[in-house]
Amino acid sequence: MSKSTLKTVLELGPILAFFVAYVLLKDRTFEIAGTSYTGFVVVTAAFIPLLIVSTLLSWKLTGELSRMQVVTIVLVVVFGGLTVWLNDERFFKMKPTLIYLIFGTLLLVGLLRGQSYLRAVMSGVMPLDQEGWMKLTRRMCAFFFGLAALNEIIWRTMSTDAWVNFKTFGLTAAIFLFFIAQGRLFREHATDEAE
């Protein structure tokens, strides 16, 4: 297995494992130390160490962690931990909102300073000229704020099943489609290095 394939497995594996475990355990209740826990809370409790281990393995494999990975792992531990400790699934459902608000706000701060913080973390992947980076950063900033709002609407108005499906497949599809929609920008603003 190549390093890039292994890295992808380590990033997507825990999310798919969460989904499969949730589907298998969602209708069950577990008695642990005299307290009843839903399948969602139990799966969340298992997801936290799984994500930590996969992140550490990814770090060992690549020798680096992105800021996004660090923020994500911190928020998973904090909000997943609150979900388990307080036996309240709402905390874990809020996590994507906070992740997208943090990233959207960071990009907005950079834009207000006339900079593309996105360029600092993605320039090796997508060589673009300065104008391209600024356009992509503005679009990504708006996209993150939109995802934060969408997550809030879904978890507050729909069932846990709907939210888990949205989190597992909807967000992944939205990110994929967002980057597909930027094809023209990538073509028009690619640098000589990218060409």
Automatic annotation (TrEMBL):
Keywords: Cell inner membrane, Cell membrane, Membrane, Transmembrane, Transmembrane helix
Spans traversing the lipid bilayer: 6-25, 37-59, 65-86, 98-116, 136-155, 162-181
Stored Pfam families: IspA
Taxonomy, superkingdom: Bacteria
InterPro entries cross-referenced by the UniProt entry: YciB
GO cellular component entries: plasma membrane
Family note: Belongs to the YciB family.
Role this protein plays: Plays a role in cell envelope biogenesis, maintenance of cell envelope integrity and membrane homeostasis.
Protein's recorded name: Inner membrane-spanning protein YciB
Organism in which the protein naturally occurs: Palleronia caenipelagi
